Amino acid sequence: MRIAITGAAGLIGCAAQKALMQAGGHELTLLYRNTLPDTDTPAQWIKGDLTDVAVCDALVQGQEVIMHLAHEGTPLMRGKDLVADAVVNLLPSLQLLQAIEKNGCCPHIIYISSGGAVYGTTFDHHPSREDDPCTPSLIYGIQKLTIEHYLRAAADKGILRATVLRVSNAYGALLPPLRMQGLIGTSVSRATMGLPLRLFGNPENIRDYVHVADVAQALVLALKHAHPFDIFNIGSGKKTSVIEILGLIRKISGSDLPIQSEELPENQTLPDCCLLDVSKAEQKLGWHARLRLEEGIRAMFSNRNNYKQ
């Protein structure tokens, strides 16, 4: 199967490459923006950005599947300049869709959306289902949901078929210790350096953590999903508080690291609960998260070279 991946050098992109190579039988075209990743994946690598029409045209040519993983920013991006935010994130996806329509290849798009940001606040802390109302308040979630709608409209017109994976809090690689997003990745980095663990917002906030290797398996299983347009939650379905995560990292590191509370920037707020109902993915894709949280975090301590800037 001919498969193109945008954002191929990112956390999920690297895991997707590995899972696809293990599955075998795929011919990969991988899009990256900056430095060519240090990888032995046999593939055609394209350097460029989806805002470039020529890059989009080259990427979609002859592809049966496009895994669209590229996205700039995080749930806490400020959104002060709405136009700039749209240029960085909405425009590339629209350029990609236009290239697909022009090419006439009608590929299967597998899009990584957000399982936390698109639903917004769930006041009663119930697990969000795919058919729940989506009321995102953060720009990140608004953009992700907007792209979902564009994909739905394109699928309705027969331009493509699309499978949307709303991924909860993915983890699995060490992240820069000063980064404000990625609680597990940044905290494990800080623990390996003997630095205090940072805490933003309410320590009792609930999150649904899923290892990136499990996300990659969801991508592989989604290859066979033949529905014109569908949405699946991808998460553990288990709630874990922020303070529980920090406690687990202290336990695994074997160090009684201090926890320092810090203010969120620019009066930003974080949802108090992000928890997914993953029963649809289990029933229709045959997917469920396999790696337990403690096991996944221990693996990060063991493999400290698995580091993403």
Can you give a write-up of this model?
The chain has 9 helices and 13 strands. With 309 residues, it is an alpha/beta fold. Helix content is 36%, strand content 18%. It is globular and about 55 Å long. The relative contact order is 0.15. Strands 3-2-1-4-5-6-11 form a 7-stranded parallel sheet, with helices on both faces. Strands 7-10 form a two-stranded parallel sheet.
Number of helices: 9
CATH class of one domain: Alpha Beta
Percentage of residues in helical conformation? 25-40%
Q: Cα-atom Rg, whole angstroms?
A: 19 Å
- What's the overall average pLDDT, rounded? 91
Order of helices and strands: EHEEHEHEHEEHEEEHEEHEHH
β-sheet strand percentage: 15-25%
Strand arrangement in the largest pleated sheet:
3-2-1-4-5-6-11
Q: Got a strand count?
A: 13
CATH topology of one domain: Rossmann fold
Going by CATH, the architecture of one domain would be 3-Layer(aba) Sandwich
Largest pleated sheet: 7 strands, parallel
Distance between the termini: 30 Å
Structural class: alpha/beta
CATH homologous superfamily (4th level) name of one domain: NAD(P)-binding Rossmann-like Domain
Low-confidence sequence ranges: none
Shape: globular
Summarize the structure.
It contains 9 helices and 13 strands. With 309 residues, it is an alpha/beta fold.
Layout: helices, strands, pairs:
Blueprint: E1 2-6, H1 11-23, E2 27-32, E3 44-47, H2 53-60, E4 65-68, H3 82-103, E5 108-114, H4 139-156, E6 161-167, E7 169-171, H5 183-193, E8 197-200, E9 206-207, E10 209-211, H6 212-222, E11 229-234, E12 240-241, H7 242-253, E13 259-262, H8 279-284, H9 293-302
Parallel strand pairs: 1-2, 1-4, 2-3, 4-5, 5-6, 6-11, 7-10, 8-13
Antiparallel strand pairs: 9-12
Helix pairs in contact: 1-6, 2-3, 3-4, 5-7, 7-9
